[in-house]
Amino acid sequence: MSSEDKYNGDNIHRVETANGDPLTKTMTMSLSNEQYERLFFQPSAPRGDLRTRLGNPTLLGLLGFLIPYSSTMFILCGLRGAVPPTSLIGLNGDYYFLGAIAMNIAGVCEFILGNTFPFAVFVVYGTHWGSLAYAQDPGHNLLAGFASEGGATGAAWNSSQGFHNVTMTLVSFAFLIGSLRINVLFVLVFFGLVMLFSFIAAADFAASTATTPADAAHISKLLTIAGGFGMIGTVCGWYLVIIVVCESTGVPCPLPIFDLSTKVFPKKAEKGDKNV
Question: 111 in helix, strand or coil?
């Protein structure tokens, strides 16, 4: 036999004959729908064998999202004296490095593995973190361009931020529809994101017309409600992190993931197990 390793997408164990000639032995591991969900959050297995040779980027993407996201929700809720949105500037490091860089790296890796949905989710929200950090970074001083239009309290600036959050609401709603075939936890995460961006957009539009302390209190209330809905994603997200960490290291995890891939619009080709 040839001395070269032959790779066909399965796990390979090398053995040698008495005269030293190498032999290869292949072993196929079958994962159920729920087991595949717990690792990749993708309702269908991609084609090809890259996923058997590369690491699972899902954990990196989740952590890159949750670390800045959780802190953001705590600030929006006003915990421990936090003052939104001013306190968010202190998270710019997390937004740039964990949110933007880590999530985009995970997204590109998901693309290479053929996981379309996680790829889109990680890249879109990762880029959103980068956009948020850039917009509020004092070093870039974007507000200087709006000085003649009222600055941070003017309609010109706040409408631009409001429209961004309206668009992110639409994006999150699209992902919410797609998550109906993944698992219940993802459905809850994207539902929370839809409500989060909706109330932040409402706060942005209200800021341009705020003239009294009552108006300021109303804006603060909108941001608190946004943070409350965002907490849904915080709880569900860390729940998913525990599951992925356990699955990646082989630690037994009794937590259910509430798989929906075989319950909502199931495909005949996906009713059986997936071979990876």
Answer: helix
